[in-house]
Each structure stands twice: as structure tokens, then as C-alpha cells.
């Protein structure tokens, strides 16, 4: 393949969800409302934790970081979808597409690592309560959170470099709602072996290992909870994990549905809807789950709302 073929690619076309005119407004309204809810919910969680010193604990510090990844991922994708729906201007520059793909992978990996750190935090809190403030000191918590962001943003650099050097000479139409790795590989006419090998290795190292660590953490947690004599004690102890466990389950179910299905069932058109679950549903669910299932967060929210009402009177 001649190098000039690759250099001629200056932009891509994003197919989006539908070209039916009568569906444009409902789709725009749903996405705009979803984006507003995501921003409102996650910013609220961030502000609540930041404003209340009682919430400056490892679990809530990780939750602040989780909110940032949700805000970042949706802000990376939803505004472009809204522009496409309103203007029907489906083009995205080559650099913009690679950047969107890089940010999506980076923020997703960061979220995986943060959720794993949260599982470790719950494991230490329940299985080694006497050593909790030693193993989960503020310094160690900050190191874990910072490491999640650093690894998350360094690791996909290889993907971005390899994809940027690929040739896209057959089609520039991305049959998806944003620039993701699978649809880009689908329209490439150069060898994809290096990218696919890198994806497989990193998927095994990070996604699978993180999932196994989270799973093992909860195996030990369940084992410790079952040793508690009273039913009330078991319920109270395990209730400290339910919010995180619910978020982890929802996260991995959507991620597995999107990327870990049999090749025979792989479809870019079908993947658009699986992608929406991850981009829209998860960032909406996280703040709702942690608000509804956490009394400390609810108390802080009530106090904040009370202060706001008093100031307006």
C-alpha cells in the first residue's frame, strides 16, 4: 500500500444512530437530557465529597475519581453526537478521531483500575479492619488513584500510534456513534496484527487481571461476612459494599457485552447500542447508586440543599 493513500485521509465520517429525519429531535433530546443528568449527578457527587471532611476517606476519594472518569468519557463523546444529530455534519478530523479513541480507551482503563482499587479498599476494611488505616492511609490512597490515571493514560499510547500509522483507503465511513478501535480496524486496509496483538495482551493484563482481583476481593469479603454470627451484623457489614458491587457488576456487564462476545455475534450496528449502555447508562447509574444506597452521602446532600435554601431566603 502506498504511503500517499494513508496521507490522503484527513477526516472520517461517523455514521451515527439513524438518518431518519423524524427521529433526529427525539434522539437529540434524549442525549441532551442524558448528558445533563450525567454532569449534574457526577458533579454533585464530586462537590459533596469535597465539601464534607467526613467523606475524605479512601472509598469516597476513589468515588470522586470515578465521577471524573464518567464526566470525561461522556464529554469526550456525547457533545460530538449532539452536533451530528443537530447539524448532520458527520465529519471528524483524522487527529480528532484518533484523539477521541485514545481518550475513550484511557478513561475506560482508568475506571477499571479505580474500581479495582475500590474493591481492594472494601477487602481491607472488612477482612483486616484493625489494619485498615495502615494499609489504606491517605498517602497510599492518593498513590493508588494517581497510578490509575497515569497507567490509564500511558497504556493506550501504543494504540494511538499504531492506528495513526494505518491506511484507510477503502472507506472513511465509521459505522458507529464515535471513534472506537473495532470500527476503525474494520475500515482499515493495512495489516491489523500488531494492534490486535497489543489489544489482546493489554486486555489480558489489565481488564482480566483487574476483574479477577475484584472477584477475589469479594470472595474473601463474602467469606468474612459469613463468619459473623448475627444476621444483622452480616447485613450491616456487607451493606458497606453493595454500592460498589452494584456499580462493578453494571460496568463489567456492559463492557463484556461490548467487547467480549463471540466473533459470530459481532456486529458494528449492534455495537452502537451496546456502546450507548456504557457511555450513557453507567455514568447515570453510578451517582444514583451511591446516593440512594449511602446514608452519609444523603445526609451531606440534605445539608448542602438546606444551606442553599437558607441563602436564597
| Quaternary status | single chain
Radius of gyration from the alpha-carbon trace, in angstroms: 22 Å
Task: Briefly note the structural class of the backbone.
Answer: mainly alpha
Overall pLDDT score: 85
Low-confidence blocks of residues: 1-7
Residues in β-strands, percent: under 5%
Domain tally = 1
Overall shape: it is: globular
The biggest sheet amounts to: 3 strands, mixed
Q: Work out the number of β strands.
A: 3
Just give the CATH class. Mainly Alpha
Give the secondary structure arrangement, pairings included:
Blueprint: H1 3-7, E1 11-14, H2 24-51, H3 58-87, E2 91-93, H4 94-127, H5 132-135, H6 138-154, H7 157-164, E3 173-174, H8 181-187, H9 193-226, H10 231-259, H11 268-292, H12 295-312
Parallel strand pairs: 1-3
Antiparallel strand pairs: 1-2
Helix pairs in contact: 2-3, 2-11, 2-12, 3-4, 3-6, 3-11, 4-6, 4-7, 4-9, 4-10, 7-9, 9-10, 10-11
Task: Give a written overview of the molecule.
The chain is mainly α. The protein has one domain: Rhodopsin 7-helix transmembrane proteins (Rhopdopsin 7-helix transmembrane proteins, Up-down Bundle). The protein has twelve helices and three strands. It has helices at residues 3-7, 24-51, 58-87, 94-127, 132-135, 138-154, 157-164, 181-187, 193-226, 231-259, 268-292, 295-312; strands at 11-14, 91-93, 173-174. A three-stranded mixed β-sheet has the order 2-1-3. The protein is globular and about 65 Å long. The relative contact order is 0.14.
